[in-house]
């Protein structure tokens, strides 16, 4: 349990609950999201939050059996902020009334999308800095609405379809709003959280410097004088985890870098020189190119490629880890979004689009205990921690790279020749992006080499070479993405450079598919 002041977010299944946590972390407030089912009286007593936020959610409080927080939350004596469903559940439990509203017909009170809230004539602490222009834009997404306030509550803001858009019981510091302050479309929403945590007495003690010191102390306590193995992929998460653990326990850490021969140009050398030479971290460079490419020979199905790579990765990792005598711990770069238990209303498992490989199952198989020093962090916080640890910005800001590497950027059969061409083309493309100052505006960019040869003419001769596709997307989390709007000049210049500089490619295309319906990678 963290020593920092902490806030509890009770999740009722909103799509945007994680954004609440992001907004709070940006304010240097430590918070945890817990699904409402887990928040029992005992949990609350042990967690002892300094404030509580109820998220939105898709259910209706008017339905029997719909989610509720335990009544004891109202007796903790700490400020509570209810959002959307969270507002409604608070009203219902404290003696108000909520009614259903239909989206169409029947005089419904549903509101979806942008709305404007105007203030009542009395100020409210959480609205400091609001209404300077007489009204505030907010984002609404509700079918039901509060039709009678609970005793002790008053109205502090209204919108055309939500007469109780902002309500509060200022005696008890209970605040309940119908809109979503955490989303981008409530432009001043952050101010609401800022005011709320200030009122609750948070001092903003969640800084990366403090986190780093705590994390180092915790690793030392957990590991003692035992040895730790860390799988290094060259990605940001495992790298930050490795450097942090090394700072905590020095040479008790050994990193295993499984090189499957599917990395980008010079990537393996860069990883090895950075960790072994620059950071002096004991590193096993397992160059298993032959093994991986051998097993992938003739394989063109994307899922089979992933399964082969995943299986071999575990075998190789295990083989080298066994060489490290007395290792008792395995370090993993697990992040907070992987840890948050989500509230599922559909019940059934979601469809697997792509099976991402990881070292799941490995700790049990090898009888190792886990060290996961990034478990409480979001991706951008991992980057901040990396900076705190002195990792270069150019490294921390790198685009994500998939575990199976170039195997899934080489649709169809993988050959050494194609990999070689792909590496060169990708290096030219990324160089172009960097030269034009676009790298940080793009979430991920890469080249895929296509399994077709096309006819071209260069000089006076006919060519019959590979076609490639350039991909560049903007995204927040990789779940959805849009293609990056390069200028025609940029595309033209890049195509010319690739064709001139990379032997084996005579045609360049740009992929303008968004996700969905496409995926970011080609396989
Ligand atoms: P897709 O292609 O599913 O990619 O839109 C979303 C993000 O995930 C990465 N990706 C993978 N990462 N193993 C990984 O570790 C995989 O098998 C894998 N497939 C896709 C992809 O690069 C993008 O960032």
UniProtKB/TrEMBL annotation:
Which residues hold ATP?
233-239
Reactions catalysed, as given in the entry: XMP + L-glutamine + ATP + H2O = GMP + L-glutamate + AMP + diphosphate + 2 H(+)
Keyword field: ATP-binding, Glutamine amidotransferase, GMP biosynthesis, Ligase, Nucleotide-binding, Purine biosynthesis
* PROSITE patterns xrefs: GATASE_TYPE_1, GMPS_ATP_PPASE
Enzyme class (EC, first level):
ligase
Tell me one GO molecular function of this protein.
Answer: GMP synthase (glutamine-hydrolyzing) activity
Q: Which residues form the active site?
A: 84 (nucleophile), 180, 182
Q: In which pathway does it act?
A: Purine metabolism; GMP biosynthesis; GMP from XMP (L-Gln route): step 1/1
Q: Is the keyword Ligase in the record? A: yes
Q: Name one Pfam family in it.
A: GMP_synt_C
Record-linked CDD domains: GATase1_GMP_Synthase, GMP_synthase_C
**Its Enzyme Commission number?**
6.3.5.2
- List residues of the GMPS ATP-PPase domain: 206-398
Subunit structure, as described in the record? Homodimer.
Its biological purpose is as follows: Catalyzes the synthesis of GMP from XMP.
What is this protein identified as? Answer: GMP synthase [glutamine-hydrolyzing]
Say which species the protein is native to. Roseibium sediminicola
Q: What is the lineage of its organism?
A: Bacteria, Pseudomonadati, Pseudomonadota, Alphaproteobacteria, Hyphomicrobiales
**Gene name of the encoded protein:** guaA
């Amino acid at each position: 349990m963290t020593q920092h002041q902490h806030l509890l977010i009770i999740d009722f299944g909103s799509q945007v609950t994680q954004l609440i946590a992001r907004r709070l972390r940006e304010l240097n407030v430590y918070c945890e999201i817990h699904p409402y089912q887990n928040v029992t009286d005992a949990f609350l007593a042990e967690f002892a939050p300094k404030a509580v936020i109820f998220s939105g959610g898709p259910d209706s409080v008017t339905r029997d059996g719909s989610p509720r927080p335990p009544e004891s939350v109202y007796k903790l004596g700490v400020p509570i902020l209810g959002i959307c469903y969270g507002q409604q559940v608070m009203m219902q439990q404290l003696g108000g009334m909520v009614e259903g509203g239909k989206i169409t017909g029947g005089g419904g009170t549903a509101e979806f999308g942008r709305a404007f809230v105007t203030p009542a004539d009395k100020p409210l602490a959480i609205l400091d800095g609001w209404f300077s222009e007489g009204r505030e834009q907010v984002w609404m997404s509700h079918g039901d609405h509060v039709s009678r306030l609970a005793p002790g509550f008053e109205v502090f803001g209204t919108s055309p379809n939500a007469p109780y858009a902002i309500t509060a019981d200022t005696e008890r510091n209970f605040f309940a709003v119908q809109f979503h302050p955490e989303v981008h479309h409530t432009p001043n929403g952050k101010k609401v959280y800022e005011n709320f945590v200030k009122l609750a007495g948070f001092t903003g003690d969640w800084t990366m410097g403090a986190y780093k010191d705590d994390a180092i102390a915790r690793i030392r306590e957990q590991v003692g004088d035992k040895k730790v193995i860390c799988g290094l992929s060259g990605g940001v998460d495992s790298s930050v985890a490795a450097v942090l653990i090394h700072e905590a326990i020095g040479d008790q850490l050994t990193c295993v870098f499984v090189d499957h021969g599917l990395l980008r140009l010079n990537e393996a050398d860069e990883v090895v020189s950075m960790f072994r030479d620059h950071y002096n971290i004991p590193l096993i460079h397992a160059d298993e190119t032959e093994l991986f490419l051998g097993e992938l020979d003739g394989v063109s199905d994307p899922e089979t490629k992933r399964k082969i790579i995943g299986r071999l990765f575990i075998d190789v990792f295990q083989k080298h880890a066994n060489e490290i005598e007395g290792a008792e711990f395995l370090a993993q770069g697990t992040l907070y979004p992987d840890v948050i238990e989500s509230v599922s209303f559909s019940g059934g498992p979601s469809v697997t689009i792509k099976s991402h490989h990881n070292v799941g199952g490995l700790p049990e198989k090898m009888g190792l205990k886990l060290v996961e020093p990034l478990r409480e962090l979001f991706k951008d916080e991992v980057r901040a921690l990396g900076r705190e640890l002195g990792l270069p910005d150019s490294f921390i800001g790198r685009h994500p790279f998939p575990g199976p590497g170039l195997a899934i950027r080489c649709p169809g059969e993988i050959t050494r020749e194609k990999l070689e061409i792909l590496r060169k083309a990708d290096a030219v493309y990324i160089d172009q992006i960097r030269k034009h100052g676009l790298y940080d505006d793009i979430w991920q960019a890469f080249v895929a080499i296509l399994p077709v040869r096309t006819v071209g003419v260069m000089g006076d001769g006919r060519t019959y070479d590979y076609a490639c596709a350039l991909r560049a997307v903007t995204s927040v989390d990789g779940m959805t993405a849009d293609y990056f709007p390069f200028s025609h000049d940029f595309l033209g210049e890049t195509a010319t450079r690739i064709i001139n500089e990379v032997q084996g490619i005579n045609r360049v295309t740009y992929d303008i598919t968004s996700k969905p319906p496409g995926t970011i990678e080609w396989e």
